[in-house]
Description:
73% helix
Amino acid sequence: MNAFTAIFITAIVISYLVEQWLARKQTIAVTTHRGEVPEAFKKTITLKQHQKAADYTLDKMNLGLTEGLVSTMTLLILIFGGVLNSIAILWFQDIGLSSQLLSGVAVVLTVFILSHLIELPVHWYQTFKVEEQYGFNKMTRSQFAKDQLLQITLMVVIAGPLIAAILWVMQNQKEYWWLIAWAILISFSLLMSWLYPVLIAPLFNKFKPLDDPELNERIQKLMDKCGFQSKGIFVMDGSRRSGHGNAYFTGFGKNKRIVFFDTLLEKLSANEVEAVLAHELGHFKRKHILKQLVASSIMSLIGFAIMGLVYTQEWFYEGLGITAVTPSIALILFILITPSFTFFLQPLSAKFQRKFEFEADDYAAEKTSSSHLVTALVKLYRDNASTLTPDITYSNFYYSHPPASIRIDHLTGK
């Protein structure tokens, strides 16, 4: 065992212990307050709904811990169990495709697909046990199977060319290959962000223009008021798979879209829909999408730079028990181990995301009505069974959105 082996294992152990500690704090907080609805929500949320949210929150969290344990065990077996070496030998020696590049792409895709299949039972349990138990699942087993097959197909069709391009650079460029590879990744990400609303998302869901003339007119006036132009407001058939409601902003350039789940429109009034839309427009007007893109680009550049430093270092491969050293192995190794180290950046990322949510809420309050946004948010917390009493340390570490009480107090000026 060299020094890097010890560092890697230590990172995994510490992250596991932190996850368990945070989960314990969350369990105590949610369980302690399960018996009474917080004062601010007693008029809008019943005790039964509050308790359902508490139980659902804990069941999801515990399943997430199980998924994390499965992922960690898969990682350790892939690396230290010799599976990654075996996959490399399979594609480079036993099968021997027509080129080293194709063999390298096959190695990376094999690891991706294998990891996806190993975690599939957890996803199935979440859908047909947890979501079903709390009345959210609307998906059939055949639809689940189709979705999984489509995800794997897209993984091969879309990720395959990107992997090939990066591996080609790694094989043929000596200096600054990592910078070229990073530029390829960013260009590809921008292309996918542009194409996603019109090419990829419709493969999973149906999107149709909002067909309520009165609401459409109100929304168009709001967008004009905010100086926002898009391909339109679309309604997604979210009810095809889940009872959860949501809205989101997607795409950029001429492909910008605001998307409402049909389940959301069924539960909100016109004033509330307008307030939620103003919140989504707030993300655009406050340049949150651009800021997230820049932050992501900087982090990926740092990642590629570090990879460039360790790419030719024997201690890196020896520390992970790897004997079949190829560009594809180097790439997949870096992809696999990076989450064990970036886990500790999670609270910082969550903090900035919550800041963006507050800013979008403020924008919505300026352009519409804070009271309408408050009632819409309360309905979303209630109907999505989001706990009203999370542990503050847990929420600060993980939550991309502020807890209900903090967010409502911010909007009402308390």
